[in-house]
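Entry for MGD complex. Fields follow.
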Amino acid sequence: MPEKIIHTACPRNCYSTCALRITVEDGRLRRIEPVPENMATSLGACLKGLSYLERVYSPDRILSPLRRDSSTGSFRKVSWDEALDTITEQLLKLRSTHGPKSLLYYSASGTKGLLNSVGGAFWRLFGGYTTTYGDLCWPAGLEATRLTLGANEHNAPWDLANARLIVLWGKNAAETNIHQMKFVDEALQQGAQLVVIDPRRTETAERASLLIQPRPGTDAAIALAVGHQLIEQRWIDESFIAAHVHGFDAYCARVASCTPAWAAAISGIPESQIIRLAELIGTTKPATICAGFGMQRYTNSGQTMRAMIALLALTGNIGKPGAGWIYANLRTQLFGEKDPVAFFPPEHPDPLVRVSISTALLGPQILAAKDPPIKMAWIERGNPIPQNPETPTVLKAFRSLDFRVVVEEFMTDTAREADIVLPAKTFFEQTDVIGAYWHDYLQLRAKVIEPLGEVKPESEIYWHLARRLGFSPEDIEKNLPGPSDTAIEAWLNRKLAHLPGVTLDRLREGPIRMPDTNDVAFADLTFPTPSGRIELDSSEAAARWGVDSVPAYREPVESVESNDSPGTSRYPLHFLTPNTKNRIHSQFGNLAAMRAFEPHPVLQMHPADANARGIVPGSRVRIFNDRGELTVVVQFDFGIRPGCVVLHNGWWLTDGGAVNVLSKARETDMGYGAAFHENLVEVAPA
Ligand SMILES: Nc1nc2c(c(=O)[nH]1)N[C@H]1C(S)=C(S)[C@@H](COP(=O)(O)OP(=O)(O)OC[C@H]3O[C@@H](n4cnc5c(=O)[nH]c(N)nc54)[C@H](O)[C@@H]3O)O[C@H]1N2
Ligand SMILES: Nc1nc2c(c(=O)[nH]1)N[C@H]1C(S)=C(S)[C@@H](COP(=O)(O)OP(=O)(O)OC[C@H]3O[C@@H](n4cnc5c(=O)[nH]c(N)nc54)[C@H](O)[C@@H]3O)O[C@H]1N2
Ligand code: SF4
Ligand SMILES: [Mo]
């Protein structure tokens, strides 16, 4: 059969959301190449993207429904009829005994797509359901940005090349946003300076002229001291502040005592580095701060992010080319998710939906749920057992349920706990439309091959279940797309109808930037905040989250310096669990292509910390605290701040490296994020 070329886009939870050009031959994927029309990802797929050639056809992929034998724990292949009949019977029993809200529908970040909303539509027709609020990823930063600037938008990715100063603050773009490094590189070639602020010397830091390695969770102190210094040196843009900033006087009062010496003592970095950072931010224009998501997973990090954005407001670095705050660009999230607060409790506009479980507290809150209690879980697009905080409690919570369904591509830690596992599609096997959170392209995630084996996309699974459960044909017709490709396309076109000029046919021609978008966010200097200005003083922050209305530094709850944290002398090491280049969280690590680079979990440790504990490189060590223990191989790394140890997140329990065995279920100060980076451990020879 002749070769066929199809354009699609990678839907992983990854900044890039790359456009991909796929060659298919005999119905099989052959080649994956770049699509230069997406200007943000013109360099093409990363190794993970290229590894789809392995992933889709992996012998480990789940290609048919499986049923667990509860006495032996082993799985056997069953027919779709048996799987769907069993689930139907369980759902009917659950609904009549405990009510529909005893069903937890848990979905996470496994794939992007408009069709993801079909799950919610199905469970409403079922009569209702319980779901989660907040998420593991980014909400403290989203909320801090919304409170300060009014919206989560930022300049186009390529605009970064115009910056003269780039601060990658708690962001490891060389591994997590690799396409951003192209624009960092262009800026550097034109003489820009790069600052990296991270407790680790990452690959990103190799290009930096200043690397600041703070004690984790103390960045707010640094930011406030930089603000203090900017004001003291008159490195501020007074006319910009007068016209566009709300709360400058209150901010000045706050930072008056936040001297560089004060912040240096808190953050454990030289005072001279804070003074140098202030000088760079105060005297280099335009300046962009790119803030990572990793650094906003602390109990004080919403306030930290507000303190960081303030530095751009003081220096007039907003609304201009090469300037601004790059955190998340929600311009393409036009399907109800633009205002993250809309999803927050206590009220949900829909009485059929009980939004009562904080994602950060998933394990404890499943166990504690009442009226009705949670009795059954349906899990898709997520691997909560290794990825959510407090793995042992998440495991206990799932095991306490009467019945569990997991829709998965692979036998993950979560799938192994299921009573029924349903095979999940890969994105090559169903058409969808996806946005992004770094660039503003809408893209067609076009179907490229027929589903392998007996795989059915989720929307089709729901359609079959709806018929078995006896939902009315009108309800099904109105709310759920049918199984055929044409029904899916008609459903997608209806979803896009409110966007002028955006149709599947138009998307087939290539990625489209959002209508009415531009390269510079807030270029008109209007800010959708209560005051219409950039808010350094936010009464909404105080009212909604109970924090100081002006950003302040507060010691993290679990910290070597904090008195609130019992037993910290027993657990003196910060456990950092960052992302890694060749995985997206718990995905890809099971493939041979990735195992070749990272065959097993490795703890990275500064030799000074290791020597003090009699640990030699290459040996096995125990990492432990009151919550759990892991045993892995240790590697020395002079680039890590002493007092910090590093193990990449995403390893499975079955790999022996599931980092959340050690973390605590705890929320961030705002946005209902997960503060699992506040995590103290001790390490000893195994
Ligand atoms: N290859 C790859 N790319 C990804 C992902 C992936 O898993 N793999 N995941 C995607 C997703 S879902 C996300 S959320 C993003 C995350 O993207 P990033 O935020 O870039 O990634 P993280 O590794 O979570 O954190 C970045 C850095 O923050 C540092 N850090 C930790 N605590 C602190 C602190 O208190 N202060 C400071 N200044 N730095 C700190 C860590 O050492 C780490 O190097 O990446 C996305 N891109
Ligand atoms: N300690 C610690 N924990 C962390 C983090 C950290 O930095 N440190 N990072 C956190 C962050 S930022 C995030 S975003 C989360 C990520 O955690 P999750 O949102 O749970 O995401 P993944 O680990 O990528 O797992 C997604 C699962 O979805 C499956 N999947 C992929 N595509 C499909 C599909 O089309 N249909 C179905 N049904 N399934 C599919 C994949 O096979 C995979 O098993 O982890 C969080 N956990
Ligand atoms: S994982 Fe990210 S960088 Fe890699 S191909 Fe997919 S979108 Fe692109
Ligand atoms: Mo994330």
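NOTE: The first strand starts at residue 4 and ends at 9.
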